[in-house]
Amino acid sequence: MSRWATVLAGGSGTRFWPLSTPDSPKQFLPLSGERPLLEEAVSRLSELIPPERILIVTGAPLVERTRALLPGVPKDNVLGEPRAASTAPALTWATSVAQQRDPDASLVSLHADWHVGDAAAFCRTAEHALEVAERHDVLVTVGIVPSRPETGYGYIEPGEQLDGDARRVRRFVEKPDADRAAQLIAGGALWNSGLFAWTAARFFAETEELAPEIAPHLSKLASGAVSDFFGSVTPIAVDVSHFERSEHVAVVPGAFAWDDVGTWAALARVRATDEAGNVIVGEAFAHDAHGCILWADDGPVVVDGVRDLVVVRAKGVTLVTTRERAAGLKALLETLPQSLLERPS
Amino acid sequence: MSRWATVLAGGSGTRFWPLSTPDSPKQFLPLSGERPLLEEAVSRLSELIPPERILIVTGAPLVERTRALLPGVPKDNVLGEPRAASTAPALTWATSVAQQRDPDASLVSLHADWHVGDAAAFCRTAEHALEVAERHDVLVTVGIVPSRPETGYGYIEPGEQLDGDARRVRRFVEKPDADRAAQLIAGGALWNSGLFAWTAARFFAETEELAPEIAPHLSKLASGAVSDFFGSVTPIAVDVSHFERSEHVAVVPGAFAWDDVGTWAALARVRATDEAGNVIVGEAFAHDAHGCILWADDGPVVVDGVRDLVVVRAKGVTLVTTRERAAGLKALLETLPQSLLERPS
After folding, report:
1. ipTM, interface predicted TM-score of the complex
2. Cβ contacts (< 8 Å) between B306 and chain A: which residues?
3. Which of A132, A241, A268, B288 has the fewest CB neighbours in a 10 Å radius?
């Protein structure tokens, strides 16, 4: 049995507008450090899985850009989805590719656009998840030990012990409110990060039994008709199609700093701040300003006497909003003229 | 006797940074409408004074740019100060030039960087000020009827009647606090705008008698040694050197919208606003934003969920501050690296 990794690298490019665009979504941006998130994700994995066994699933239009960013990963390992259909079809495809090349494959899967504070701890946890998946023939989800009562994440309530710190799952809880999140954390719940592990054999057994959105179309993948497969499946998250429906599930804890870098405001968690809590990227100057996120790609940015703002100059556009509202950027973009969103960058 | 106008068009270019720069101070910018303030000032005067008798005093480095902006004004009428020395030396020079060409000249003087709401009312008032100056042989200041208890302006308390609505001056009051400003307005005080009128003869009589900062150096102007004159005088405002010291002073009221466009925040008074009180110049978009000043010269500006901000993108720089703090821009600029202020525009 050999171990593979699948990196999900889709994305519509709205959350970090104007820096991110459909042509250049989050994973191509150096949001948490000097390198694009996707490059960091593959680099982080390389201690655990050699690049020949790392698969990247991205949108078809981004395949060439992804291959160019990752010269160490074989071209055939970059899979371009003909349409975005959430995580279950993407992971089904990747698991199928791994199994075709390696019938006994096991896989760890993750997202390209995460910030991880400790690469070694991440690899130890991913390896542990693979071991549990292989030894107990279960789908494994890594539950991150929460650092705050985040309302934007799903939570996992662990159940009875399976093996060491691996436990059954009592329940998945989708995005709770802040009070409920605090209760969940007090009761030992973990964040459902999307870091998963399984053997290809168990994954397809569960797919056949529990995922009618996908199972009838598996033969299309086997015959290489990928477009037909994506055209036929019902889009669904693997959390729903597999983890919430299966009896063969376990959770292992992940005790490393983890962030899905979901909004501009997240940069205050994943990057260094100045003594006034400002994040400054590029030629930006904060005078009597507190808690601001400043991103200056395209000429200097100067802020004065303001608090908790997000100020971005990138791709020829200036955005000023609040940290709190940065999570609603997609709704803002819907109010803007299309010409503004499609301008050449 | 013929009538002349002097337009003071100096300025250091700090108040509307990054749009304004030492190379392109306020009067060259279309702050209140489509045309540069200086062009509007000369155009406004043209109903009253022909361009051959309009003098412009500016800094020596700005002479060519000023001539290019005002092709209708004779080149010799654009006077370049060898150094900035406040208003009294500049007006002394301009009055001297007018008198040399026209010994019986009378002059109206104004600043290039004003917004005036009603050009016809402005011209009627300026003409009235000239009539009073000529008929009563006095230095005349136009007092603007206040529209708010502004603390950034000086006030004039009118005294006894001189002729019609022309009155003697009881007192000049420098920048009062808000309570005092409200008291002054209740008592009939007017804003000291800097719109003046005098005959050259009366101006020089007062200069000789009351302005030792300037009087000993007048012979230098007479002999054409302008640099010597500016190198010898003590910088002083004409309000202090002449108006506050002279017995031969009158005030006439000016009942038109007037603003010295002193800060970014002033644009909310002199330009149209949207229904949420935002001023939008260029390709700017305000979403759930109130009372903002948005200036987009250089790519779109999008603001979301903010209030009373000034957001400017111009000359390759982005500035975000508050309306309230925009008056302190000069102090902010002193905190920034010199390289940022001297970048090519």
Report:
1. 0.90
2. 309, 320-322
3. B288
Contacts of A298 in chain B (CB under 8 A): 299
Structure tokens at A117: 């504070």
Q: Is B304 in contact with A296 (Cβ distance < 8 A)?
A: no
List the CATH number of the domain containing B158. Answer: 3.90.550.10
In total, how many domains does chain A have?
A: 2
Is the Cα torsion angle B165, B166, B171, B177 positive or negative in sign? positive
Residues A181 and A305 in one domain: no
- Mark yes or no for CB contact B322/A305 under 8 Å: yes
Domain boundary among B205, B238, B259: B259
B121 touches chain A (CB under 8 A): no
Claim to verify: residue A206 and residue A91 sit in the same structural domain: yes
pLDDT tens across A44-103, in order? 999 999 999 999 999 999 999 999 999 999 999 999 999 999 999 999 999 999 999 999
pLDDT at position A13 is 83
pLDDT surpasses 90 at B341: no
DSSP B222-270: HTT-HHHHHHHSPP--HIIIIITT-SSEEEEEE-S-EE---SGGGHHHH
Identify whether residues A246 and A286 lie together within a single domain.
no
Confidence (pTM): 0.91
Same domain, B74 and B153: yes
Q: Which residue out of B302, B321, B336 would a mutagenesis test of the A interface target, given it has the greatest number of A Cβ atoms within 10 Å?
A: B302
Residue A244 lies in domain: 3-259
Q: Do A318 and B311 touch (CB under 8 A)?
A: yes
